[in-house]
Input
Amino acid sequence: MQIDIKVVPGASTDQISGWLGSALKLRVRAAPEKDKANRAVIALLADALDVPPATIRIERGQTRALKRVAIDDIEPAEFTRRMGRPDP
Output
């Protein structure tokens, strides 16, 4: 499955902040340099979804705040159960 995310690097804590429209908003402590924030995003999602980090990859937006993330081995219904659904 694929999901759009909005990343806020340099935050005080790593956390999933909820939905921002149709994108999931994540805050990570890592700086947006040398792929540190992207690795932190993958680690945060893997922990929250209880999946191996290797099943998550950033498909689009590697150097931008808005990213498209692909997550293998999880069905959309299971993702929704674990993360909730954005408000319509």
Q: What stands out?
A: The chain has a mean pLDDT of 92.
